[in-house]
């Protein structure tokens, strides 16, 4: 029973979608496949442009940064966990990162970022939507909308957020958005999905040069406009799996229904853990819809729970990271999960506590 924050369990019908006779990426069928994926992403994200690129979520973040940031651009960053720090490191390769940190477990909202934004001359804001390392959901809608009012471009790491958490790029003021295929979409790993706003498209398409070949969005734009294809050979089998994952997403009511299903599972998980006496890592009001981090009484207790779940019950969860690396654990309620599996895992943790 896999309850980790990505990769997540993949439904059999999504796995089987990959098992077709191989086609070339330069044929009509390939164009139709990629066109379907892109058109759905445009609708899901409410984006001006969208692309699916073969690679990890980290590649998607790097693609957004190197296309939307110039070398001398000041980029305001608000890390509050491991993945926020990795975003800062990515920005530092291509631009001038200006990071502002916060106490572990706390989230970012407009009240905490407004003064920093007001006193910054940054051209770009880059931050994480759902901080997977702790299970924290930052209030990106109010932050990004305010940053846009200050004429900043906004880049968002949504790797573990969508479609378990709301996203409307136009309404939220998001210019660049990246999602991993192996998280709440519940497809196999290996694809990153990118959404771009009108301002983002104008920014990257007007550049004389971009410091990458593979990640140059001008090439992706040019090839898609020509024949609905990708500039390089994509992972065609993963495209088939992603298409099937989108079919299932739509069959279950679309992104809005997915958000509710994830939010309900998250609320249930938090209540059960709190009732057992665990502290929750995420500050109240900043809890993630897709992963819950909780704190054990000691590192030994965390180790015992995790090992007994796996060794005696074949249930895999993961530890927390950074500040809560020793005594923190995380349970994911992400993707096409079965709530009965989450209930079983929590029941088992309760049983382990009684035995100890």
Count all strands and give the number. Answer: 13
Kindly, what is the distance between the CA atoms of the first and last residues, rounded to a whole number of angstroms?
Answer: 23 Å
Estimate what percentage of residues fall within beta strands: 5-15%
Structural class of the helix and strand makeup?
A: alpha/beta
Mean pLDDT reading: 98
Portion in helices: 40-55%
Q: Kindly identify the CATH topology of the largest domain.
A: Aspartate Aminotransferase, domain 2
Please tell me about this protein's structure.
- The chain is of the alpha/beta class.
- The protein folds into 2 domains: 12-251, Aspartate Aminotransferase, domain 2 (3-Layer(aba) Sandwich); 254-355, Aspartate Aminotransferase, domain 1, CATH 3.90.1150.
- The chain is built from 13 helices and 13 strands.
- The protein has helices at residues 12-16, 28-45, 57-68, 82-94, 110-118, 140-149, 169-172, 198-205, 217-227, 236-251, 254-275, 299-313, 339-355, and strands at residues 49-54, 74-77, 96-99, 124-128, 130-131, 136-137, 153-157, 176-180, 191-196, 279-280, 291-295, 318-319, 328-332.
- The strands form 3 sheets. It has a 7-stranded mixed β-sheet, sandwiched between helices.
- Helix 7 (169-172) links the parallel strand 7 and strand 8.
- The longest helix has 22 residues, at 254-275.
- The protein is globular and about 65 Å long.
- The chain starts with 11 loop residues before the first helix and ends with a helix.
TL;DR?
This protein is an alpha/beta fold and 356 residues long. The chain has helices at 12-16, 28-45, 57-68, 82-94, 110-118, 140-149, 169-172, 198-205, 217-227, 236-251, 254-275, 299-313, 339-355, and strands spanning 49-54, 74-77, 96-99, 124-128, 130-131, 136-137, 153-157, 176-180, 191-196, 279-280, 291-295, 318-319, 328-332. The strands form 3 sheets. A 7-stranded mixed beta sheet has the order 1-9-8-7-4-2-3, sandwiched between helices. Strands 10-11-13-12 form a 4-stranded antiparallel beta sheet. Strands 5-6 form a two-stranded antiparallel ribbon.
């Amino acid at each position: 029973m896999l309850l980790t924050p990505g990769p997540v369990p993949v439904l059999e019908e999504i796995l089987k979608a990959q098992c077709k006779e191989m086609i070339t990426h330069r044929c009509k069928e390939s164009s139709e496949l990629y066109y379907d994926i892109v058109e759905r992403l445009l609708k899901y994200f409410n984006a001006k442009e969208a692309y699916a690129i073969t690679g990890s979520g980290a590649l998607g973040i790097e693609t957004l940064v190197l296309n939307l940031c110039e070398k001398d651009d000041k980029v305001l960053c608000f890390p509050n966990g491991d993945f926020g720090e990795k975003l800062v490191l990515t920005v530092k390769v291509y631009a001038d990162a200006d990071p502002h940190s916060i106490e572990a477990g706390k989230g970012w909202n407009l009240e905490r970022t407004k003064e920093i934004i007001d006193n910054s001359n940054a051209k770009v804001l880059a931050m994480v939507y759902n901080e997977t390392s702790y299970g924290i959901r930052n209030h990106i809608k109010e932050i990004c909308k305010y940053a846009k009012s200050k004429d900043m471009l906004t880049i968002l790491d949504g790797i573990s957020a969508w479609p378990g958490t709301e996203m409307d790029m136009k309404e939220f003021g998001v210019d660049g958005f990246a999602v991993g295929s192996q998280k709440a979409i519940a497809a196999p790993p290996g694809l990153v999905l990118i959404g771009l706003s009108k301002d983002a498209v104008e920014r990257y398409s007007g550049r004389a040069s971009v410091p990458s070949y593979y990640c140059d969005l001008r090439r992706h734009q040019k090839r898609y406009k020509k024949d609905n294809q990708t500039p390089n050979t994509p992972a065609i089998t993963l495209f088939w799996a992603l298409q099937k994952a989108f079919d299932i997403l739509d069959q279950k009511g679309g992104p809005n229904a997915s958000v509710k299903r994830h939010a309900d599972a998250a609320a249930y998980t938090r209540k059960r853990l709190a009732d057992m006496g665990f502290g929750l890592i995420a500050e109240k009001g900043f809890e993630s819809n897709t992963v819950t981090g909780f704190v054990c009484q000691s590192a030994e207790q965390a180790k015992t729970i995790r090992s007994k779940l796996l060794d005696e019950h074949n249930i895999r969860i993961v530890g927390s990271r950074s500040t809560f690396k020793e005594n923190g654990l995380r349970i994911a309620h992400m993707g096409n999960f079965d709530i009965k599996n989450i209930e079983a895992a929590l029941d088992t943790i309760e049983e382990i506590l009684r035995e100890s």
